[in-house]
Model the fold of this input.
Amino acid sequence: MKIIKIDKNDWTRGIDKSRETYQLFGPVTDSGQSIFKQLDKNAYPEMGGTNSVMSPKSVLFPQTEKILAASLDASMENHHIMQRPAADYSRRAVIGIRPYDAKAVRLVKLNFDTADYRDPYWCDAHGATTFVGLAVNQPSAVDFSISMGSGPFGEEGLDVLLVDLEDHYLAKVLTPKGGAYLSDAGFDAAAETDASLTTIETMQLAAEAAITTTVPTDRLQEKALLDLHGAPFWEDLAFTCINCGTCTFVCPTCWCFDIQDETKGKSTSRFRNWDTCMSPLFTLHGSGHNPRGKKTQRVRQRFMHKLKYFLDKYDQGTMCVGCGRCVEKCPVNIDIRSICSTMNAYDPKDVA
Amino acid sequence: MDNPYQPYPVRIDDIEIATKDKSLKTFKFVFLNRLDEVRFSFRAGQFAELSVPGVGEIPIGIASSPTEKGFVKFTVFKTGVVSSHLHNMKVGDIMGIRGPFGNCYPWDKLEGKNVVIIGGGFAFTTLRASIIYMLDPDNRSKFGNIDVVYGARSPGMLLYRDELFGWEQRDDINVHITVDGTDDPNWKYNVGFVPAIVEQKAPGATPATYAIVCGPPVMIKFTQPVLEKLGYGQEQIIMSLENRMKCGIGMCGHCNIGKELVCKDGPVFTLKEINRTPREF
Done:
């Protein structure tokens, strides 16, 4: 394990140097809120911030993305033939991504990179990206990432893990891709490995101890899917939901999308946009029939997908990384932690 | 397919009004690039996304059989934005097709078996493909008895009427045509709902007999108990499902029924498989 020491006095110079070979993305304040976006050439990632309002999923999966385009002008060659527009997939680095969000990228990859089909937009962006993570020294009150198989110092999905030590970072080099980024940034001061690992471990234990919420997931797998689906608690759990879809937009693992065409003059573009299973339109048939026309069905869909369908399908844990964004942002305080506990504890025999 | 979102360019080669009320039309498409037809190699029961640039895409079952070469056919009901636009398009217009998507009817399992096809209304498209496929001289010997029960509201609402009446005359397939009602005094086929005709005319179950059922929800609802009464087991009843979908490749998340995706794990499921899902379709 190679560990690099980065003096914070060298930080901005290194970031600037890495701009020569990478497009940079990071957390910045936009309209008063912390979001991940491509950094302007004078902007630096705001490393001190707390959990970003929006997850970094947009770096690989923009909220709106042009996927195809065509001319509708019959005098043009290839009119009405849709082609992928040129896009920049040169090297990019996401600076300051949190460990749970990096784990989310790994989960989303299961959807977009499969044995049968490869989503070229997501996969090309993913392949171009180096993930430079930042360990969470002070977990938020809603962080339950440990329960979901991640944690404040989790390394899954990261190429580099930065640990903030006041006047410097220790950078754990996790992959060759990570090493290449640090080298391009000019961060090359090797730290003494054993001592650094001890320091990092101490900080990790402190951060993990600060997360007091434990959400049990151990019995989700053994539950029968139809038992959970038919459980009597969904009506109650969904009662306050207003189907706003906020939970799905802030979620780092929600990947559902819609495809829409937009035409201006004689040229048309096909876009994909984030969609939300909380909307009745999501499942509305052309005939008017709607298999999830009721709110309760949609709320159940979201939690069953994250905590049961995904688990059964991939055997890679839940489709939740415990970032706590949906808990924090839900306008009616629907809490995935308690819903997960309820599902985990459910026994159809208890319902007489 | 390098980019599963990029349609193969096609030209509309022919448009046929499929029902008397003109709500369904059959479109015949020819691929602009010959190689794309090879890339589009499919089996009966699969579907494709018909892609109209500037308007959008619709998932439609493939109505032509893989044994019919040089074109692909789709019969489309006019119902939403894309299908309405398509109904106004003309022969010669350029558009796109993505696919083929989904699984197909279980042809490997059906080999050597008796096949009973039960269809209603305009859900007869992939069943037409299946019948053409099985009746192909190269394939007919691979199957035992073939029975078809197909019904529509009225004679004019039956799809593929000429073919249907032709099959009815043959002795290598038993075709039972029915309508809910008709005022045609010369109507020489059945009158009655599909489930009732199934009960009267469909062969009883044997371990080597499979039923493929495709139709509106109400037909499926009342056909299922009839088949069970005839002795068909849950693994012998095969259905093709529909759900709203966008991508066709299992990624956009729209068409799930529990952990199954209609576009990728389906659209064809056995009743046994369907009964293991939350049945959100």
